[in-house]
Amino acid sequence: MIPFELKEPASLGEAVALLDPDDPAVRPIAGGTALMLMMKSGLYQPRRLVSLRALGPGIAAIRETTAGGLELGAMVRLGALERAAEIRRAAPVIAETLVTHSNVRVRNVATIGGNLAHGDPHMDLPPVLISLGAAVIAAGPRGERRIAVEDLVTGYMETVLGGDELITALHIPAQRGRRAAYMKVTARSADDWPALGIAVSAAFADGAAREPRIAIGAATERAMRLPGAEAALAAGASPREVGQAAAAEAPVIGDHHGSAAYKRVLVGVYVERAINRVLAGGEAA
Fold first, then answer.
1. CA quadruple 66, 70, 75, 76: dihedral positive or negative?
2. Which of 86, 89, 141, 194 is most buried per CB count within 10 Å?
3. Burial group, residue 245, by CB count within 10 angstroms (0-12, 13-18, 19+)
4. 3-state class of 276 per DSSP?
5. Residues 85-114, mean pLDDT to the nearest whole number
């Protein structure tokens, strides 16, 4: 790695001031699990890194809201999310998903804010959070703004965040009886990068799905919802029919995890399976 400057601000305002929106060689660092690999490989050569580790307990807390939702500080470690009683009460699909997200060493260092800001489509959490209707809070010199997770990433490792903005929190609304499930396909071990990730969330009344949310990751350039498949599920289509609609709708791409044709078949199969899991009670697999 080339030499770089490391700054460790003690406040959010100081951290934002140290960023430079016009210089891509100046970036924040949270857990650093992905960024350090990029630096070691020479893919990214920073001039300055702004560490967020000393910003105080407020940005590393897990809180249940009075409405029954969750507010997670951006510096909460993924391992802490996996173990938190608040997560298991309000959104157990997150805890179950994290069991096979990378490995325990990475989860004990990586943060939720860094995970989302990285914009890698192969991450497990973005489709899960999209299915739960989650949003991030981003802070910058012009104040704060709320961004739905489904709108955060615009392309491969590209987000709507400005060069002088930081994710400070993640909000997950109260699920109010909704059921959720996440299923993924990996080419090797269970904690490998997925070839496909599918998340489904829905409420049910009189045997029908209400306000379903179906999200896909890994097989597409970015995690995204599948509104056509959602509409089919809401209209009473069978899980198999919804899977077929999702396979036709999803803009899948091929990579070393599998061809586009192979992944399209997987989409149909795993959307069907995820819906059946939700119908059976939900949570991850």
1. positive
2. 194
3. buried
4. helix
5. 94
pLDDT of residue 281: 81
| Host domain of residue 183 | 179-279
Strand partners, 198: 183, 216
Claim to verify: residue 166 and residue 204 sit in the same structural domain: no
CB atoms within 10 A of CB 76: 20
Q: How far apart are CA 51 and CA 151, in angstroms?
A: 25
Cα gap 78→234, rounded to integer Å = 33
Neighbours of 189 (CB within 10 A): 8
Q: Is 0.90 surpassed by the pTM of this model?
A: yes
Q: Which residues pair with 183 in a beta bridge?
A: 198
pLDDT at 284 over 60: no
* pLDDT given at position 283: 61
| Residue 249, CA distances (Å) to 149, 210, 230 in order | 20, 21, 11
Give Cα 14 distance to the centre of its chain: 27
- Residue 77 resides in a domain: yes
pLDDT at 193: 83
Output the pLDDT for position 282: 65
Which neighbouring-strand residues pair with 181?
200
pLDDT of 285 strictly over 50? no
